[in-house]
Structure formats: C-alpha cells, structure tokens
Write a structure and sequence with these properties.
It is built from five helices and ten strands. It is of the alpha+beta class and 162 residues long.
Length: 162
C-alpha cells in the first residue's frame, strides 16, 4: 500500500525556491478541535515545538502575524512593542481568510496574500526545529527556526505567554 500523497502547498514551494530544507508532515484533522495542541498530539511531538500562526492588526503597521507555541497565548502588548505599534488586536476570524488566503487551523506564516511582518516567539531559538502550518489543515512544515525567519523576513520577539 502506498502512503497518501502529501499536497504541495504555496508555503512549501516558497521554501523550495529559497532552497531551505524542510519536511512536510501530515496528520489527521479533527474539525471540532483545530487547536495546535491537538495537532502536536496527532504528530506525536511536544506542543512546545508546534507553533500556531495568529493574525493581528497594529494601529500603525496594520496586519501582522505572530507564531507562538501551541499551548501559549499571544501577548498583545509585547507584540505591539516588538512591532512598533501602540496597540495590537487580534483580527476577527471572518477577516483572516480574506487577508491571508488561509482558513483557521491552516494559517501559515509563509505564502499569505501579502508579505505581512512575522514575529516568531523567542522560545523558538532554543529549538532544533519546529512545526508551522503549511497552509492546509493537517499539513505541517518541519524546519529550523532560523530558516523560517529567513523565509518570512521575520524576527524573534518575546510575544508568547505560557
């Protein structure tokens, strides 16, 4: 029996174009629980190495993305400080797809409709590799944190609260 074909996503194509090494991993999706912690369980890995991508809007910079560990909460004040904003608020869920092209549970920091600023929680620095969404529910990219930063022209910042 052959294994199921892993769909190639725009995020994966971007990494290939930049010659950044990565792996695609697929896990079953539970539509009733799209949490990153659940995804970590399905992948059989520590939730600290699975990063969820959240979309926010700053009062000065507009839309931005934050990648934080699965079990963490986004620290909006810290994200505002890191991004040069006075205030940052989460983008309403109904606006995420029109802004990024991605659905909840499948939002990738790579390959959004526009190249938004990306802030990766500084805890990623301690990891050899991490998982982020490849842009489809249940499909994850596994790569080095510095390679992710390079691919999205992002920066590390203390934006997560555990």
């Amino acid at each position: 029996m052959s294994s199921p074909k892993i769909p190639k996503t725009n995020a994966a194509r971007i990494l290939e174009g930049l010659q950044i090494p990565f792996e695609l991993r697929v896990a079953e999706v539970d539509e009733s629980d799209l949490s990153a912690v659940t995804m970590a369980g399905k992948l059989g890995v520590d939730p600290a190495c699975v990063f969820k991508t959240l979309v926010a809007k700053g009062d000065k910079t507009g839309v931005l993305m934050a990648c934080i560990p699965a079990a963490a909460e986004l620290d909006l004040k810290a994200l505002a400080a890191a991004s040069g904003n006075k205030h940052v608020a989460m983008v309403p869920l109904k606006e995420v797809r029109p802004l990024t092209g991605y659905v909840r549970g499948g939002c990738s920091p790579l390959g959004a409709k526009k190249a938004y600023p990306v802030f990766v929680d500084e805890s990623a620095i301690l990891l050899e590799a991490l998982f982020v969404s490849a842009g489809l529910r249940g499909v994850q990219l596994y790569l080095k944190p510095d390679d992710l930063l390079r691919a999205v022209a992002g920066s590390y910042a203390p934006v997560a609260r555990l």
